[in-house]
Amino acid sequence: MSDQDAGQLKVVVDFDLCESNAVCMAVAPEVFEVRDDDFLYVLNETPGPELVEKVRESAERCPKQAITLEASP
Amino acid sequence: MTRIAIVGASLAGAHAARAIRAAGFDDEVLVVGDENHLPYDRPPLSKQFLTTNADDGHEYEKLKLRVTKEPGALDLRWRIGAKASQLDLDERALVLATGERIDFDGLVVATGSRARLLPHLLVPVEVAGRVCSLRTIDDAVRIKQLLPSDPGRLVICGAGFIGLEVASSARELGHDVSVVDVAATPLSRVMNREAAMAVADLHRGHGVDLRLGVGLSTVATDGKGSRVATVATDGKGSRVAVGLSDGSELTADLVVIGVGASPDVDWLEGNGFDLSNGLKVDPTCAAAPTVVAAGDVARWPNELYDGQYMRIEQWDNAVEMGAFAGTRLVAALNGESGYASFAPVPWFWSDQFGQKIQLAGLVTPDSQIVIGKYGDDRVVELFSNQRGVLVGALAWNRPRHAILARQLIADRASLDDAVEKLAG
Lengths: 73, 424
Ligand SMILES: Cc1cc2nc3c(=O)[nH]c(=O)nc-3n(C[C@H](O)[C@H](O)[C@H](O)COP(=O)(O)OP(=O)(O)OC[C@H]3O[C@@H](n4cnc5c(N)ncnc54)[C@H](O)[C@@H]3O)c2cc1C
Ligand code: SF4
Prior knowledge:
Chain A has helices at 23-27, 49-61; strands at residues 9-13, 32-34, 40-42, 67-71. In chain A, 25% of the residues lie in helices and 22% in strands. In chain A, a hairpin with a 5-residue loop joins strand 2 and strand 3 (40-42). In chain B, a hairpin with a 4-residue loop joins strand 5 and strand 6. The site of iron/sulfur cluster has 15 residues of chain A, from helix 1 and strand 2.
């Protein structure tokens, strides 16, 4: 089930929920990085189609369910 | 029609369902769960759920797993509040507690584990309502209701992760807390002594009365001559009196038993499975040709650790193994062969008094600290096997390092390489 052809997707992280445990970084280091200051940085808010599956996996694996993928306008 | 049944409507079952759909299986997926709730997340139950003061309905909404937040998305059929009481493997059927039979083509065993009670604990009826364990949202709601609104007293039996997290939450709410454990250190089953002592110091520093090396007392007999531990009323009926093995006594408004969990395998008996310490499966998560298991209930040989059998009661393992088992099951139903092995690096976190403690892999006697020292705010310790290969990493407030180390463990890096990459 893939909606890669559903247009550009935007990565949204709810920083109130995020606990910086870096699971997302392990799955998609191209998109997520937890730096030494312990904050999560989204490196690429609108990942290309080749990264969408990885980002989706990050969203599923995030223990806080802090990541969502939205259709960008 | 082909049907996959998933028994256990929680984390491993939910991620199995997700993977089953992702693998293209579009016939019926039926999820059977004996709790009266759709799948929800357990880790907050000992943490934020106890300390935040919202109405419970709203909190339950927040705990729901994604698969249940978007019902219909995966097109699952739910049988909630239904217990599988038996498996008939030869006939490929489940028998529910109601007697109803459900045929299946493929089965995912995801029944997790259940809070263990002290086998020798005798609880008089007058105080039974004040002695709880913590595994389900119903347990957590009950604990919340029993916590006094004014500062009161809790006795927690068992210094494992759940007991210590409840201790932390209860201190945050202003209650007096005693934690009692027969072992000489907290977390004795998972952590090395040095780290465990740092956890003990953390709790004592926050005012927890941590009593190690003592158990609930074993002074009474059960009539059949066995010695049993007892809790009693304090005479006034409103509090619980807990006698300890060193002769001391504590009174409490609430006693929380946190002495671990046992895999839920009773319903699988009679099918020739090895059920000692969970359902034993092969390296690909299969117990029989189209029967797979995942999560807290499953024990499997992890090839990354020389085929060492593991049964892991951790969130991330339920997610990964659930997804793996779901994919594996669809492949089997499609008649494919040559499956990959499930060989992850286990990883978990625990939050206590604002500290984030994470462990990737296993703790061994051979270790090196690469950041800080115990007692500091930030510590990273790496562990190797006898061949000098990195097998574990313990991180305090260094999540980035825990995750990077986890990858290095998966890559079978040497301890020396890992030290070089992670130090500083
Ligand atoms: C309070 C608490 C805090 C935790 N905190 C952390 C943490 O900080 N970090 C971490 O890594 N892990 C944590 N965990 C562990 C994590 O939640 C578990 O590893 C995870 O829930 C396992 O998922 P599972 O699906 O395998 O099993 P479970 O979540 O146990 O689900 C199994 C389900 O199957 C149901 N069931 C059992 N038998 C039957 C039957 N015969 N028929 C039908 N249904 C049945 C059960 O009622 C249950 O709903 C915590 C657990 C608890 C309880
Ligand atoms: S996995 Fe989730 S909680 Fe962890 S850093 Fe990423 S977004 Fe934050």
